[in-house]
């Protein structure tokens, strides 16, 4: 197939890497891969095009000119901007929900409304439009306080804190942040959910649901879950501690009812529904919905998928998931560790040289995915974002995958960088991680 992937991060690199690996795994003819705008790592596997990911007209024109068989939209911003709508209007198969359906991520208040209508178990919440309402909601729920920006915030719009003043300040910052085209600012205050968190990606064609393998990511910047929230500092899969039947429970009680409710509203959701879960003392609860693959969980989930990714994504785009064969998975474990730039997630320093990527990939079972990278005029690889690289390793079990991934991370040289050293540590020792 001719496949165009939209986006420029490690998630998109993971998707392109999976497409490229299909030839190795199945012996099939290689795909013709394209990406817009992509990054230097993606450029080693696909032809890059200097097209804005959020420009639907330009993306549709590019896909038409290429004769693309499938367009895969990675990030949330293009989905909320309606890029998938523009591609479908051009008559091209597209994996990713419409702008209306992507409101499941674009507005937490909308997502809560859908969950309520679908009887999805989730945290109690107050939707607030001013700081006085926020203060009342914080007092009603008590600490720990959970404050969420209603709109897109690149995974960093949530604060969980015991400090009431910090919670109020985050809410005030959310109100002060303009959201073009999104109306008046809204903040969602939720009850705190205890227990370990799990991410489950559920593919849908608007009617049927096909779950992928569960994963767990690490949001805090530093070891022992210290520091501020980030877009994610690492992840692993599978989850040996997860209860039996978890995936089936989530499909039955969460994903399928949500897909049914979206269809009932006339806004069918065709793409990947990211279900963020908390396994609480009172049962499984939904923390959040996203309308795309999560980063960095995608890196480990796709590393274990043996079914050709291109085939299942095209089936979802065409409304053919009901007849799709059962997905096949490797028994291996996968771990990814994010190498972040100096200052991340606050004042990020860009432009530092990166070396050691090839040496890292020389390790058994290791590959490196680019997130925030660029090439300078001399061809030197440099940092160009907060999360710079995702080092991924597979192993017979989590302990082996951890040894391999950290051996790979040790080869990477990025001045001032930092990474967590405890990704999957507790799980490898047979314990759940309460994030």
From TrEMBL:
SMART domains according to UniProt: GARS_A (SM01209), GARS_C (SM01210)
GO molecular function, one term: metal ion binding
Pathway(s) where this gene product acts: Purine metabolism; IMP biosynthesis via de novo pathway; N(1)-(5-phospho-D-ribosyl)glycinamide from 5-phospho-alpha-D-ribose 1-diphosphate: step 2/2
Keywords from the named record: ATP-binding, Ligase, Nucleotide-binding, Purine biosynthesis
InterPro entries named among the record's database cross-references: ATP-grasp (IPR011761), ATP_grasp_subdomain_1 (IPR013815), PreATP-grasp_dom_sf (IPR016185), PRibGlycinamid_synth_ATP-grasp (IPR020561), PRibGlycinamide_synth (IPR000115), PRibGlycinamide_synth_C-dom (IPR020560), PRibGlycinamide_synth_C_sf (IPR037123), PRibGlycinamide_synth_CS (IPR020559)
Catalyzed reactions per annotation: 5-phospho-beta-D-ribosylamine + glycine + ATP = N(1)-(5-phospho-beta-D-ribosyl)glycinamide + ADP + phosphate + H(+)
Pfam family, one: GARS_N
Cofactor: Mn(2+); Mg(2+)
Tree of life domain: Bacteria
Every ATP-grasp domain range: 112-318
PROSITE patterns tied to this protein: ATP_GRASP, GARS
Signal peptide stretch: none
Presence of the UniProt keyword Phosphoprotein in the record: no
Keyword Ligase: yes
Example GO BP: 'de novo' IMP biosynthetic process
EC number(s) on file: 6.3.4.13
Gene3D superfamilies, A to Z: 3.40.50.20, ATP-grasp fold, A domain, ATP-grasp fold, B domain, Phosphoribosylglycinamide synthetase, C-terminal domain
HAMAP family, A to Z: GARS (MF_00138)
Family listed: Belongs to the GARS family.
Protein name, entry field: Phosphoribosylamine--glycine ligase
Gene designation: purD
């Amino acid at each position: 197939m001719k496949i165009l992937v939209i986006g420029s991060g490690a998630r998109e690199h993971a998707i392109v890497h999976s497409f490229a690996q299909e030839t190795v795994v199945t012996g099939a003819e290689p795909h013709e891969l394209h990406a817009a705008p992509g990054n230097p790592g993606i450029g080693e596997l696909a032809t890059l095009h200097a097209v804005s990911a959020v420009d639907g007209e330009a993306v549709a024109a590019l896909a038409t000119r290429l004769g693309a068989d499938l367009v895969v939209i990675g990030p949330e911003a293009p989905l909320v901007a309606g890029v998938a709508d523009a591609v479908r209007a051009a008559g091209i198969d597209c994996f990713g929900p419409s702008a209306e359906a992507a409101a499941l991520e674009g507005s937490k208040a909308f997502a809560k409304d859908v969950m309520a209508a679908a009887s999805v178990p989730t945290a109690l919440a107050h939707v607030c439009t001013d700081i006085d309402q926020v203060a009342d909601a914080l007092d009603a729920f008590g600490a720990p306080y959970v404050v969420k920006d209603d709109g897109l915030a690149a995974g960093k719009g949530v604060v969980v804190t015991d400090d009431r003043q910090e919670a109020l300040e985050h809410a005030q910052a959310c109100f002060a942040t303009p959201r073009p085209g999104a109306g008046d600012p809204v903040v969602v205050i939720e009850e705190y959910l205890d227990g370990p968190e799990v991410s489950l990606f559920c593919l849908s064609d608007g009617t049927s649901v096909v779950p992928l393998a569960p994963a767990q990511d690490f949001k805090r910047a530093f070891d022992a879950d210290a520091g501020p929230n980030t877009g994610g500092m690492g992840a692993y899969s599978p989850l040996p501690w997860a209860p039996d039947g978890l995936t089936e429970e989530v499909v039955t009680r969460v994903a399928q009812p949500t897909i049914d409710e979206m269809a009932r509203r006339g806004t069918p959701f065709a793409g990947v529904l990211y279900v963020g879960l908390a396994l609480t003392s009172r049962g499984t609860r939904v923390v959040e919905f996203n309308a795309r693959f999560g980063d960095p969980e995608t890196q480990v989930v796709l590393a274990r998928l043996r079914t050709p990714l291109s085939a299942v994504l095209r089936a979802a785009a065409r409304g053919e998931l009901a007849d799709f064969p059962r997905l096949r998975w490797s028994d291996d474990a996968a771990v990814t560790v994010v190498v972040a730039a100096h200052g991340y997630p606050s004042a990020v320093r860009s432009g530092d040289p990166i070396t050691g990527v090839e040496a890292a990939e020389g390790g058994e079972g290791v590959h490196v995915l680019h997130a925030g990278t660029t090439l300078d005029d001399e061809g030197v690889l440099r940092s160009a974002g907060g999360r710079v690289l995702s080092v991924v390793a597979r192993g017979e079990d989590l302990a082996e995958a951890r040894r391999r991934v950290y051996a790979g991370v040790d080869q990477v040289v990025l001045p001032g960088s930092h990474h967590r050293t405890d990704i999957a540590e507790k799980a490898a020792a047979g314990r759940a991680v309460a994030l």
